[in-house]
Amino acid sequence: MARVSESSASSGDTVKSLHRGLRLLQTLAGEEAGMTLTELADHVELAPSTTHRLLNTLLRSGFVEVNETTGLWSVGVQALAVGNAFLKGHDFVSLSRPFLRKLTDGSGETSNLAVENGGHAVFLSQVECRAIVRAMARPGDRTPLTCSGVGQALLACMSPERVEELIRQHGMPCYTPKTVTTPDQLHQTLALARERGWALDDEAQALGMRCVAAPFFNAYGEAVAAISISGPTPRISDARIPVLGDLVARTAAEITRRIGGRPADGFHVPGT
């Protein structure tokens, strides 16, 4: 794997250094157990010396931490402070929390809240169910838009041109034999989501797991975020899918009304 040498980047190239530092933070955010310097350098395709210099800068400002015994690097407390500032500045996160609990209580399954960011769906909040076998998505986890329930719910609110642009930029990852892998299939799937008011991940990311999701909207009819119910296929059976789809869509409509929003043109809202 090719690496960028220390000498190839000018010391004055602060924008490039910032971009690399953010890539390191994003990588560490996805590894709860931490990563070694070598693992990080390989993952972001940088020289170990460059990676170490960037990590030390982040360490001094509290954005990363290092275990001196194991040599493992992890996200620092300052990153949490920045993340909390984002949540505080987005009232819909705290506002949606009671609705997520309502979804979990009504379905017996885990509920989630996610937004689109950088061509992915990013989870911001979750209410876990009490079942031993359940779906898990930590706040900050990222998932492809094209094959996730929350991702497809958000894509269904976008123009075909925007969807095509995201496909060109990020591709269409394939995880199981049931993953949608062509633009035509995806556009058909999104049309169905708009028609019924909710999207379905039918084992597209993981065999044995299903998810139904629906977006909620601001005053301009733009999708703010998506909420979902996810769980194992034996519990989210074929017969339950429409029931849960209607439940999550109605709940999303409640949040839309609560924030003074309106549904996007052409997006069905059950009960209206």
Automatic annotation (TrEMBL):
Residues 15-77 form the HTH iclR-type domain. One of its GO terms (molecular function) is DNA binding. Keywords: DNA-binding, Transcription, Transcription regulation. GO terms for biological process: negative regulation of DNA-templated transcription. The keyword Transcription applies. Pfam families: HTH_IclR (PF09339), IclR_C (PF01614). This is HTH-type transcriptional repressor AllR. It comes from Alkalispirillum mobile. The lineage of its organism: Bacteria, Pseudomonadati, Pseudomonadota, Gammaproteobacteria, Chromatiales.
